[in-house]
Design goal:
The structure holds two protein chains of two kinds. Chain A contains eight helices and no strands. By secondary structure, chain A is mainly alpha-helical. The longest helix of chain A is centred in the last third of the chain and has 43 residues. The N and C termini of chain A lie far apart (42 Å). Chain B folds into two domains: 158 residues, Globins (Globin-like); 114 residues. Classes of the chains: A mainly alpha, B mainly alpha.
Amino acid sequence: MRGYANRLIDLTEKHADRIALQWLGDVRMNPKTPSYHTFSDEKALSHAAAFYRNFRTLFCTEKPFDAARKFFTKYADERYAEGIPLHEAIYALILMRRHIWLFAEFQTLFVSAVEHRQAAESLTRTILLFDYATYVITERYEELMKREMEERIRRDGGPGGQRQAAGARPK
Amino acid sequence: MQAVATKLIDVTETNAEKIARQWFADVRKNPKTPSYHTLAEDRAIPQAVDFYSKFRGVFAAKSPFEEARRVFAKYADECYSNGIPLHEAIYALTLMRRHIWLYAEFQALFVSAVEQQQAVESLNRTILLFDYATYVITDRYQELMKGEIDRQVSALRALGMEESFTGSKVGIMACLMVACGFLTYYYHAVMASGVIFTHLFYIPIVLAGIWWRKRGIYVSLLLGFILIVSHLLFMKEVPLTDDLIRAIMFVVVSSVVALLAEGFSKIEVLYRPAAQAGSAAKT
């Protein structure tokens, strides 16, 4: 599996910007990610490219859950601060994963029967990573929402706090 | 792909109960699903059996997203009503998916090279379905949370009588004040008695606290003032102590109501952006 996985990782790392661009084209038009339709190109591309560049670390680590927690907690923090709703943040990530495979398929990375079997194993490993990612992101979003509510209660406990509380979360 | 997919669906459907039990044993012990550790078996297993039984419908649907929305919105509703946090509900579903494949592998469903290749395609289809499932469930949970917040906000608004009361607050309060003044005059000047009529004063006092918060305290001050002046004018021979205590109690009760009402309005303000954010996310 390792040989194939390496090829997949190399390809993803080498073409991080290109895959990120294809991903951006997708989230820009996808009806399930409306928050990205008006999102800054530069910002969106930077977090997609960051993910593709870190793919090797996430894929090859001995403790995938710990690595996923570290990376995707940051991802969740950033998306939350940018005002992206949870279901869109996750769907954008799902699209990031699909674009790795779309690119790999387009490059005809797996041709022979053996490669197909290895592809299945690589796919399983990628899915495992994304299962952890979804778990970490949803958990983190819940934590951030709870924290925000607590902070608001604390901040608006004093007089004149109502006006502040009514303000939107900074984007 | 069709043959492998059919085999996978057949095995899943036929062994729905068995796979569901294996899944339950997993979520029961998995550190990522602590809410399931204490969830009753008869609540968790039927949910998994239901999912495995409907797997064919979702897998083979022509519009998989629509079918996923139908099936997984119900799953989200059930998990939400069981008090399962979103990340655990999703992880439990992830485990449901894994148990399909664990069982299929255990049954050596994909042996030949062709079957292996078809298995990849089958896996892709399953993953697509679960991608939709994750989207639908997170979306639905946010909708449910927003609904709950809306209900709480409505309850707070009802408490402040913001929606149910549309009349003139000042007019109503003026009528109540006149009635209180008349009662005071009648009991002090005509009946020469200080019996419990002052209990009725708490109606305008509480209403003023709810409607005008701290400014409502002026109503209690005015009523206390009327009570004491009336006492001094018409009941000179009776000690003032009782009415003085009553007047102080008016202010105390009025202050407590005002503080509570202010607290409720703050909570409402805190909830409102969350509810609005939920609406914005839906559009």
